[in-house]
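Reopening this one. Same input as before:
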Amino acid sequence: MKKDVFLLFDTACIYEIVCLNYFLKFTGSETIFCSVRGSDITSMEGYRIGIDCKISDIELSNIRSLIIPGGDVSNMRNEEVYSLFRKAKERNVIIGGICAGVDILDESGILSNIQSTH
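Same output, byte for byte:
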């Protein structure tokens, strides 16, 4: 079964992914919440979110989509995160960025020569 992965972080805007997560459930795919270290996060809204795995545990061959929401993305500006998105692009994984999450996609280099609403 393919999985849809949300890359979450402290101060992520959870409201930005609530509807998307809801509709993905109807596709029969498994939704996974991931963080860089695998530890639970506290969203910008103050919700404590349980995390399923850490970034190094992601096996891209089983991933349908990789989504990063907005929020204060300053802690996501690192090579481990950028590398994950570059590898996901190489494997034709569907990649989504919402609000400031698009900044991370851009900084990773995967939006070069691609039109985006960024």
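So the earlier flakiness isn't reproducible anymore. For the record, The helical segments are 18-25, 79-90, 101-108.
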